[in-house]
Sequence to fold (341 residues):
Amino acid sequence: MHEPMQLPVIPFVDLGPFGLDGLLPAHAQRYERLRAEACRDLTPAVVAFGDRVARLWAAGRDLPYRDEITAVARGAGRPGAWLMNLNYEFGCTCGIATAPDGAPVLLRALDWGRRGVGATIVAARREGRAGPWTALTWPGFVGIVQGLAPGRFAAAINQAPRGSGPGAAGAWAGAQWRLWRARGLPPALLLRRVFDLCPDFTAARRMLAETPLAAPAIFTLVGTRPGETAVVERTERRAVVQEDAVAVSNHWLTAGFPGAPRAAARRREPGAAGRDAGQARRRHQRLRLARPADPQRDDAPVGPAGAGDRAPLGARLGRGRPRDRPARPDRDLKTIRRETR
Fold:
């Protein structure tokens, strides 16, 4: 008989109306562990350089929550806060299921590749302008990558494919150049604004689809009533809303969107892009298979989205059609995390 798994304790912090920078004083050790892991992966010199570049990028932009990032940087006393807050590397997997009462449910597999990210997480509750919400986040990080607003919606970010370019190095360089020129919001700060300001699912979907971004992202959003589900695929200035998607990982569901998986862009081995795209699609399929049965969704026709599904910002939100591949019933959700290593 297997021994029951000992799960780590996730601290819960009620911030009231105050910002997420308030997590740092009580959980400075968790922040320092994250910073130490970043320095080990990238070297302290690269972290310090990246922090200066991130702060310079933010200086000429109308950035929400700037005061909170500034407070974190001041409280930490060492470089890293700006880099942490203006960069997101979370290769997660999301699914949408249906509760017995017909309400949608957001499923989230936290398959992160960065060391220490899972062990340093905290649950933070805040009173936003539109109502309270709770996010699974990290001390020092003022954006949101997954959260729940009771009575309104739940949402999460998935890492999107990196922009195209000549080879992995070209794709990475092209993405950095587009980011440097971009005037939109970092995805995690946009999702934080959605939780703070949006009163319902419809308003959240509109803000996620219509706000210019600094980098591509994939948002999964569910409301409280049957049919309130959406996967919002975003480039910097384009949006596709998939209303029938049941799972998403780190590849586009929409046919024709550019880019390769980010993990491939960080590596130089031949075939890395193909392998990473395959892993993303397999994680997508396994979470899709692991969902509780929902005949209304699973029987819906699926196929490549047409060019007409790609709409510029401000256009009417359309119904997208996700691409799909045959499920693998011999493998399940437990393999998702292993494939991200």
